[in-house]
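#help-structures

NK: newbie question. if I give both the sequence and a SMILES, will the prediction place the ligand too? trying with flavin-adenine dinucleotide
OV: yes, paste both and it writes out the complex. here, I ran yours:
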Amino acid sequence: MLAHPCLVKMPCPNPVTLTDCAAIVRGLRGIVGDDVIDDPAELAAYASDGLTAYSQLPLAVVLPRTTADVAAVLRFCHDGQIKVVPRGSGTSLSGGALPLADGIVLGLGRFNRILEVDLDNRCAVVQPGVTNLAISAAVAADGFYYAPDPSSQIACSIGGNVAENAGGVHCLKYGMTTNNLLGVELVLMTGDVVRLGGRGLDGPGYDLLGIVCGSEGLLGIVTEVTVRLLPRPESQRALLLGFPTMTAAAGCVAAIIGDGIIPAAIEIMDRPAIAAAEAFVHAGYPLDVDALMIVEVDGPPAEVDYLIAEIDALALAAGASTVRASASDVERTLFWAGRKAAFPAVGRIASDYYCVDGTIPRRTLPAVLTAITAIAAAKGLTVANVFHAGDGNLHPLILYDGDQPGQLEAAEAVGAAILEECVRVGGVLTGEHGVGVEKRDLMIRQFTATDLAQQTRLKCAFDDRNLLNPGKVFPELCRCAEMGRVHVHRGATRFPELPRF
Amino acid sequence: MVTIRATTAAAVADAVRDACDRGRTLEVVGTGTRRGYGRPVAADDVLNVGGMAGVVDYDPAELVLTARPGTPIADIAMLAAAHGQHIAFEPPDLAPLWGGAAGSGTLGGTLALGLGGPRRPFAGAPRDHFLGFAAVNGLGEQFSAGGKVIKNVTGYDLPKLMAGSLGTLAILTEVTIKMLPAPRATATLAWAGLDAAAAFVLMTQALGTSAAITGAAHIPARAGPATTRLRLAGIPVAVKAGIAALGSLLSVFGPAARIDDADAFWRDIGGVHAFADDADLVWRVSLPPSQAVAFVTALGPDDARWLFDWGGGLVWVMQRADDDIGRVRRALTATGGDGHATLVRARDAVRRAVPPFQPLAPTLAALTARVRARFDPSGTLNPGRIEP
Ligand SMILES: Cc1cc2nc3c(=O)[nH]c(=O)nc-3n(C[C@H](O)[C@H](O)[C@H](O)COP(=O)(O)OP(=O)(O)OC[C@H]3O[C@@H](n4cnc5c(N)ncnc54)[C@H](O)[C@@H]3O)c2cc1C
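OV: that's the protein plus ligand as C-alpha cells.
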C-alpha cells in the first residue's frame, strides 16, 4: 500500500530535538542499555501502525522491560521535552501509534508476561504487551476466558486494547474493554507511577481508570493490566439469516432486541461483502440476498436451543429468505468463516480498501447505508459493508486503488463524509477503532469548541507539557499554561462597574 | 446562605458563573436525599437543580434513554418495565440509610454516587451504563461528552469520570444511559447455617460456572440463622438449567431452598436496609472477594455487624457509634490492602474528622486534585465533599 506521509498534519517537529538526536539516543541508552533502536532500516518497522496509509520514522524506538525503566525513560523525555508515542502491537486502525519525527516510540512488546491468574477473584494480572488471545489461552484449561475479542486478537496487545477501549463481535453482550477491566498500573509523563483500580470493583476516588481506558495513549503508559475473567459459556450456536432487503434485516435486529434477547453477537454483511467473502472462503452463503446476518447465542444448551428457535421465528416474521441454524460447532465456525475473512476477502477484489468505523442509532441503518453508497458513488468508488449490527457499529470498507492518482484522497474524503453522516443522524465518529490521527480533524463535527477544550484540559492534568502522543485525537493541543488565567475568575470582575459589598 | 433554583442548563451555567464572579461556592443538591454521603459540604450557597426532571427520549429498541438528572429512578423503572426493560446495574435504594424515604432516588443522584446494586459484578456499575451527558463545569461552561449510542469511543470517556464524582467536577444537566431487557424469569436459591468461610466457597464455586447468576450474598447468623443466597435470572429454561446445575454442584452445602419472589430480599441487600433504622456507623468495603473472610475475621468477633454482597467483593459493616472508628480500615490493611472502605453513614462531625473515602496514595491524590482543577479550578462546586 502507498505510504503517504503528507496527508495529515502533525505538530511541528521541534528543531532542537531533531538536532539533539544523537545525544538523546545516548541518554536513552544510559537508561535502558541496548534496548534502543536508532538505525533507520530497523526504525522502518515502526513507521506505521494498522493505518498503513500514513507513515513516519520516529527519532528512536525504546523497548523497555520494567516499569522502572518506563518511568526513567519518561522522566528523561519530560525533562528534555521529548515527545513519546506509546506502541503495543501496532494494529491500530486510526493511526494512534503513528510515530512523530521528533518523538520516540515507546514499545511495550517486551512486557509480555502473564503475571498471575487469580481464579478465586476471577481475574488475571498481565503485562501490557501480552496479546488479547494469550489471556484467554492461559485460562482456557480452567474453563475461563477474557471476553472482549477484537478481530485482531491474535496480534493486538492488551495494553493497546486498554488504550483504544477495543471492542469485538461479542461486545453486544459482554461489553468493551472498559467493562472488563479491573485495574492498571500507569506511568505518567513525569515518571510518577499510579495504580488505578485493582482486583476489587470500583476503586476509591474518581474513576480515572474509566478515562485512561480509551485515552489512546494520551494520558500515561499502561505497564500492568488486571482484567476480569468469565466462565466460558457451555455452548454456542449461530443462525445464518439472509434477507431480501437491508430494511428487513434491520427490522429483524430491532425485533430480536425488542423481544428482550441480547445475543452474544449480531453481525450483518451487505451484498458486495457477501460476494467477496463467499468467493474467498466458500462458506455457503446465499448470494441472492441484500443482507446476510449472523446471530450467535451462548449459554447452557437448553437456553441456546430455546433462543435459536425464538430468533428463527422472529427472522421469518421479519422476512428472512434464508434461515439456517448451526447443528455443530463445525457448522457454526463455517458461518463465521466468511465474516471473519471479510476484510482480506475485500482485499482480493480491490487493490486497497479503507475501513471506516462509526456508530449510528440502529433505527437509521437502512437510510445511512443508502447514503453511504451514494457518497461513495459520487466519488466514483464502491463500498462493502460488514458491521456489528447489534450495537449499530458500522465498518464500511471503501474500495480504491492507491496506484491511481487521487484515489486515496477520494477514499479519505468518502470516509470523512460517511462519518459526518453518522454524526448527523445522532451517532458518533468511532465505535471501537479510536480517533487517532484519522478522525482527529472530524472531532469538531461531533463536539463543540467548549467540549473539546474541556477534554484537552483533562490531558493537562496528566501531561502538562503535551509530550505524550501529541497530534492524536484532538485537532488542537491545549495550552495548559493558560489554565492559570482561569484562576483569575475568582475575585476578578465580570461587571467592574457595579458596586460590591 | 441563599438557595438558588435552576431548572435549565442555561440557568445552571448562569448560577455557576455568577458564583465564580462573586467568589462564592455552591453546594449542588437535587432532592438532597444523599447529602449524608461523603464529607459535609461547606459552601456559601445552595444550588438546587432538582427541578431539572423528565425523560427526554426513550427508544427501547435502541437500548438508550435520555433524561434530565432530577428524574426519579422509580419513574424510569416504571417506564422501562412497560417495555420489558430495566436499569441493569440495579440502582441501590440507599436513601433510608440517611433517614430518607425508600424509593426516593433520582437518576442524577444515582450517577453522582456511582454505586451499583447486587447485580454490579455481573452487569456493571452506573459507570458501565452511563453513555453520555450534558453538564456545566466549574467555570460555568456548558459542555457535553460521550454520546447517545451504546458503542462509542470518541474522545475521553468522561461519563465514567462523572459517575461517582459527587458533583465536584461538573453539574449534570442531561444524561443518557443504556437500558437492557429485564430478565423474563428470576429465582433465588438459599442455603441456611453456613459460616463466612463456607459461604465464600459456595459463592466462588457458583460464580465459576456459566450459570446465569445475578446476585450472590451472605448474611451471617444473628437473630435468625445465617443465609447464603444466589439469584439466577434469564429466560425460564436458563434459570431452570442453572438451578439444576448449581443444586448438584453445591450439594455438599446442604439442600437449597428455592424462593421465587425474592425481590424484597435483594432490594434490602442493595440498600442495606438491615442497617437503616439506626444511628450507628455504616461502612462499605469493596475488596477482592477472596479477602472478604479474612477481613471480617480481622474485624473481630464482637458486636460489629456485617454482610457480604457481590460474592464477597462487597462487605457492608455496621459499627456502634462509640466503637473505635479506625478498626475497619485497620482490618482492611491487615488483610492485604487491595480494598477500600467508605464511611457511608456517620454524624457530620465524624465525617469531618474521619475521611469518609479511603485516602489515596500521594501521587494519585495529587493527580486527582489536578483533574478536579481542570473542571472546577476555583473549587466552586461542592467544596469539601470528597477532600477537605
Ligand atoms: C485486522 C484488524 C482487525 C481489527 N479488529 C478490531 C476489532 O474487532 N475491534 C477493535 O476494537 N479493534 C480492532 N482492530 C484495531 C486494533 O487491533 C485495536 O485498536 C487494538 O486495541 C490495538 O492494539 P495494539 O496493541 O496493536 O495497539 P497499537 O496499535 O500499538 O496502539 C494503539 C494505541 O494505543 C496506544 N498504546 C498502545 N499500548 C499502550 C500502552 N501500554 N500504554 C498506553 N498507550 C498504549 C498507542 O499509543 C496507540 O494510540 C483491528 C485491527 C486490525 C489490523
